[in-house]
Amino acid sequence: MTFLVLKPEYPHESASNSLFSVKKGEILECPSGYNPSDSFQVCETRAAAKQYLKLTSKASSQEPTKAEEPSKDKVSPQQPYPLFRKVASIGDDDPTYQLFSRDIHRFLSRDEAEIINDFKSVNMHKNTAERLLEYERKHFTRKGIVDVLEEIVKNGGD
Q1: Which uninterrupted H or E stretch holds 28?
Q2: Which of 36, 49, 107, 138 is least surrounded by CB atoms within 10 angstroms?
Q3: 76 — alpha (psi -120 to 50), left (phi > 0) or beta?
Q4: By the 8 A CB rule, do 129 and 152 touch?
Q5: Of residues 43, 33, 60, 35, the one with CA closest to residue 5
Q6: How far apart are CA 152 and CA 133, in angstroms?
Q7: 3-class DSSP assignment, residue 6
Q8: Residue 133 pLDDT more than 70?
């Protein structure tokens, strides 16, 4: 039996697939037949996994020394829409955002007003709007969200 822990340098707060869903800081029993990627620390025992978490949390919580502190001009602002990913487009000043299929339920599980505000403020890719609309109709059926998504799909999104 092996145990998996997402490495601290993994770019997202969680990982999921058809076999499991795990967040950073959680210990996952490795599913039978799963070959872990380099994104995971593989531990032979639960105790070893706990030790790894303890060591990595101590290392990440230490204060940076004066030489390690990033200058204020070099710190990049945090992305305003954490679940959305920017879609690269050539010659377009207004970036288009896409939502991965695995994040749709998490996004749509929020309050309707928050979701509609995000729709109004993000330039959403048409394919994302279509996936969101399909999921919304199937699982939630909130008229306000359906109307906004239909408008985005009708106008072509990006």
Answers
A1: strand 28-29
A2: 138
A3: beta
A4: yes
A5: 43
A6: 10
A7: strand
A8: yes
